[in-house]
Amino acid sequence: MKHFFAQAYWLLLFFLILSQQAAAQTPGLAAGSGSLTGTVLDSLTRQPVPFASVVLLLPAPAEKVVAGQSADEQGRFELTKLQAGPYRLRISFVGYGVRTQLVTVTDSRLALAPIQLPATAQKLGEAVVVAQRPLMEVRPDRLVYNAEQDVTNAGGTAQDVLRKAPLLAIDGDDNVTMRGNSNFKVLVNNKPSPTLAANLKEALKSIPADQIKSVEVITTPPAKYDGEGTAGIINIVLKKGTKQGLNGTVSANAGTRSSNGNNSLNFRQGKVNFTSSLNGGLNYNGRSTSSSEQVTYRSSRNDTLRQDGTGHTTGYYGSGSLGLDYDPLEHHSLSLNGSFFRYGGTNQSGNLNRYTTLLPGFSPLFLRDTRSTYQGGNAEVTGTYTRTYQQARREWSTIVQYAYNGNRNGYEFNQFNHADRPLEVSQASYRERSTTRLPGHEYTLQSDYTLPLGEKKTLEFGLKGILRLTGSQAQVDTLFPVQAAEYATSRYRGTAFDYRQDVEGAYATYTFNATEKWHVGVGGRVERTGLWAEFTNTNTGIPYRSYVTPLPNVNLSYTLSKTSSLRLAYSRRISRPYIYYLNPYVNRSNPISYSYGNPNLDPELTHSVELSYNNFIKTTSFNVALSVLRTGNSIEQVSFASTQPLRPVPDEIVPAPNLVLTTSANVARNTAFQLNGYVSAKPTNNWSLSLGGNVEYLLLHSTALDLTRRGFAANYNANTAYKATKTLTLQGNLLQILARPTLQGYNSGFIYYGLGLRQTLLKGRADVSFNAQYPFTARRTFGNATTTPAFSQNSRFANQQRQFRVGFAYRFGQQQATRPRKSIRNDDLKSGGGGQSSGGG
To answer: For the TonB-dependent receptor plug domain, which residue ranges apply (predicted)?
Structure first.
């Protein structure tokens, strides 16, 4: 039914445009002086229905359209230049029933009472035409990828979904970027997940693609969102059933590289709504090869170290959720939601090292056989109280959330000098093992109030407080078999690091229509940040300090026509470093490259300006945007020779020939000039096509490193779907990322592509799917390079990519979009998009 509604909506807009053009040329429909205004609301939540279709028709039995438009983002509409007389007003939107009512237009302005649209599960007064929602939607403030319409997602994970969304890309190491930038925030149903913040690329594997409804890409978030994420916000919207009675899904998928099972069960009866899900999967056949060459420059000679490695990774993940919504009275609602994520895995690798120059204390040939492990878990509980009022759009909500995030990483390696293959453990020249724990607790309290000031003015304001308690406990054990028989714990290389951060914020946003064509939003946040750190093993730390940051936000939109608009937005945003950037633990799993965090990092501030143009013509949506992002005091990952360190460096590191250190530091001032566009079209009734791309010119400057880098970067993705029969859909997608300059080098590009089909069975209750990723290419290769005055590095990495996957899904009851619930959005941390670690395993 939902697919049917979506088709009707887009067809209605198409015929509305045609009929309006015809009406303008039809005698008897001359312009008058009357006007008609109103607001479209959800009949259950009393919240606005943005972009609802509004059509004014002549009295029955005539079907001639007199006027029409789409409501704005607040559900408001105004039809002008109308002749006085009786008409029929018809309101519709995807997922709602069609509402038709009689109106009598006069020679003056007529303001209607709020018009309430019923959800599709309610009994409708007339026939409802429904159809498939388009794969991509262009909205005034965001781009939406309707993942549930993409058959190639069947049996996959959130990683598979995000790599096909507009303006997003996933590189060869599974790190997500948005418009080429890793500084963004990811929300799930408009709320944060500590697991996503801590390790995005692993956590995304625990979210089944079959449970994702859509992905929203918000490039210029308004002031009500937390101030972090210079590139914007990615909101993953999950499916949630609300049909009266029992409904749910059961699915299983098996592939050459991964398998999973996903289940959901939902129940609604009267004022009570219960939702639940349980999912799990395995990743295997993750075989990879790597090679690198490091050249260290010296006055008399150059030292070269070559590494060749192989690896094999296996992993698991699981997730679950429980939700209970209760509406005790008409304008009061309560909800309690809990969820957990769990993931883990191992990597077995062998790394052969060859020195071309014999150095004191170094073997010219040695093999390091390493086993790395990782595991993480997150649990969170959220309670919400929402108060609505008789006045449309007026609302007050209070939310309390507790979240626990715990990660444990480790490695164990055996080094065999003068050997090119693994030997017996008893023959190892050196052995080392390490474990790191990263526990975290997060407490959040948030309150928001929305106050309408007339039909076209709205004031929103709120308060928020976040308390984070986290840290790192690491232990390193070493063993020289010729000197001892048992491991000994290193007194100097362990870490006991405690970190506290509290953030208090307040925001206010005022939106209004300055004229019939100008819509203005003015707002801002003020955030106070306090932090404290202590190293218990050295009795040192960072004394408690705090700072206040104003974050203004302005949004102007101009309506060019009923189908097109211009938008200009400015925002100032902040990025606070996450624990992985701060953790001072030194990761020595690579013999020639150590990495560690920097607890002295300061936050970075970014100014962002964006001008965008949106248009919808018949069955084609189009968006193009120009933007400039300027970041001072940017947090960058930097590499340098241990003999010429960039301070500060942990005292435990002893400078050595050919040793490279990698950490994060506030060392750059970056500017990005971006041009991105997106188009979604439907050339025929059965064929849909979408294409998006981003081109940017980067200017990276570091006074501390005496470096200036500039250059172009670009990426694009394409999706196409063809409905061969009423029950069979074919689909394909393509993503290409071009090489991207970095502060000290570059990252290479790559191509990703996939094909899929889905056959619907049992009158729409079941699906059988088949998907292929990289069907014509077994492996994907990518690389990166780093060049400094002291050394240069060139690395290449290739991993298994070809995968074939089959799946089966069965639905009982009917899946529908849930009524919106307020949720917390902790968007104030810089987690590098992928939550990449600067140290700590």
So the answer is: 144-232
Over residues 365-379, mean pLDDT:
90
Mean pLDDT of the 431-448 span: 92
Evaluate if pTM is beyond 0.85.
no
Burial of 330 (C-beta count, 10 Å sphere; 0-12/13-18/19+): exposed
Instruction: Supply 444's token pair.
Output: 């959040």
End-to-end CA gap in the chain: 48
Mean pLDDT of the chain: 81
Identity at 20, one-letter amino acid code: Q
**E strand intervals along 5-129:** 34-42, 53-57, 65-70, 76-82, 85-92, 99-105, 109-111, 115-117
SS3 string, 200-244, reads HHHHHHHCEHHHEEEEEEECCCCCCCCCCCCCCEEEEEECCCCCC
577-600 pLDDT, tens digit per residue, is 877 788 888 888 777 788 888 888
Q: At residue 352, what is the residue type?
A: L
**CA max distance for the chain:** 102
Rounded Cα distance between 466 and 445, Å, is 7
> Could you give the C-alpha distances from 663 to 1, 628, 637, 647, in angstroms and in order?
53, 27, 6, 10
Residue with tokens 């509004």: 54
Is the distance from CB of 155 to CB of 806 less than 8 angstroms?
Answer: yes
Rounded Cα gap, residues 167 and 674, in angstroms: 11
Task: Name the pLDDT band for 609 (thresholds 50, 70, 90).
Answer: very high
Contact 246, 266 (CB under 8 A): yes
Structure tokens at 322: 């429980």
* pLDDT score, position 149: 75
pLDDT of residue 834 exceeding 70: no
For residue range 773-799, list pLDDT tens digits in order: 889 888 888 899 999 988 899 999 998
Backbone angles phi, psi at 152, to 5 degrees: -70, -10
* CA–CA dist 168, 175 (Å, integer): 11
Beta bridge partners of 262: 251, 279
User: Is-contact 419 73, C-beta < 8 A?
Assistant: no
Q: Are 586 and 650 in contact (CB under 8 A)?
A: yes
Average pLDDT over residues 316-335: 89
Rg (CA), the chain: 29
Half-sphere exposure of residue 829: CA atoms within 13 angstroms, side-chain side: 30
Alpha carbon distance 391, 133 (integer Å): 31
Q: Do residues 61 and 101 touch, judged by C-beta distance below 8 A?
A: no
Domains of the chain as residue ranges with CATH: 33-117 (2.60.40.10), 249-812 (2.40.170.20)
Distance CA 814, CA 3 (A): 12
Asked whether 89 and 77 are in contact (CB, 8 A), the reply is no
CA distances to 296, 305, 306, 789 from 744, in Å: 15, 19, 20, 10
Q: Which residues pair with 65 in a beta bridge?
A: 57
Helix/strand/coil percentages in the chain, nearest 5: 5, 60, 30
Confidence of residue 475 (pLDDT cuts 50, 70, 90): very high
pLDDT recorded at residue 816: 42
Q: What is the pLDDT of residues 514-571, one digit of tens each?
A: 888 899 999 999 999 999 988 887 777 788 989 999 999 999 999 888 778 899 999 9
- Secondary structure E strands in 584-727: 587-590, 593-595, 604-617, 620-641, 660-684, 687-702, 707-723
3-state DSSP assignment of residue 122: coil
Cα–Cα distances in angstroms (integers) from residue 496 to residues 234, 584, 654, in the given order: 34, 9, 20
Q: Tell me the C-alpha to C-alpha distance, in Å, between residue 338 and each of 277, 402, 830.
A: 11, 10, 25
> By three-state DSSP, how is residue 534 classified?
strand
Dist CA 1 CA 52 (whole Å)? 18
* C-beta separation of 558 from 565 below 8 A: yes
Give how far the C-alpha of residue 191 lies from the chain's centroid of Cα atoms, to the nearest Å: 11
List, for residues 47-65, the tens digit of each pLDDT value: 788 778 888 888 876 667 7
